[in-house]
Amino acid sequence: MKLTLTHVKHIANKIAVDLNRSGVITMTHGLDGVAFEAEKHLIENVKKEMVLEEKVHDIVDENEEQIDFYLADERQLFFMIKKKLAEEFGVILSYEERFSDLAHTILDGLYEEDLIHYEVNENRIKNIIYDAITGFIADTGEIESAVIEKLRSYKRKLIPGTDEYDILFEKHYLEELKKRGMA
């Protein structure tokens, strides 16, 4: 699942909490310092992908006439261009590799800023961060499914993409996060 800016704060908090609960690190500036540093790296990573996607959209838009003429699948074309430009923009498209790299980057940032101390193998710490990211994403899929089911149960039909749908989705999403202790 793709990371978004709305997920970043929650993932950063989960990383801080999971590291604290692990019992293998000591935090020098508490949960907030760790969460802030993790959030900084998560935002940077998400923004890199946003810049890449903006460039791909520009390329697709510039070639819209040719795409229509050849009846090309725009989604498939978008992904092919994104794949070709990903390395140039510093974006790893494989989520497993990307989250592993991100976990390492966050760990480096926490160490360099002297926010954590540990006496175990750094791979163990990196794995805690990686598991926090992937765990949140797995939970988010369940949360989004629960929210979508709630919205489908409304008597009136809500149309995805409308303001009303988006507002209700966000409201129920936050409720689900709170219910699961993630907000």
Q: What keywords describe this structure?
A:
single chain; mainly alpha; 183 residues
Q: Tell me the overall shape.
A: flat
**Total number of β-strand segments?**
2
Q: Which band does the percent of strand residues land in?
A: under 5%
Uncertain segments? none
- Describe the sheet with the most strands: 2 strands, antiparallel
Q: Number of DSSP helices?
A: 7
Mean pLDDT: 92
Which helices and strands appear, and what pairs or packs with what?
Layout: H1 5-22, E1 25-27, H2 30-62, H3 64-69, H4 74-85, H5 95-112, E2 116-118, H6 122-152, H7 163-179
What's the short version?
Helix content is 74%, strand content 3%.
Structure description:
By secondary structure, the chain is mainly alpha-helical. The chain has one domain. It has seven helices and two strands; from the N terminus they run H-E-H-H-H-H-E-H-H. A two-stranded antiparallel ribbon has the order 1-2. Helix 1 packs antiparallel against helix 2, helix 2 crosses helix 4 and helix 2 packs across helix 5. It is flat.
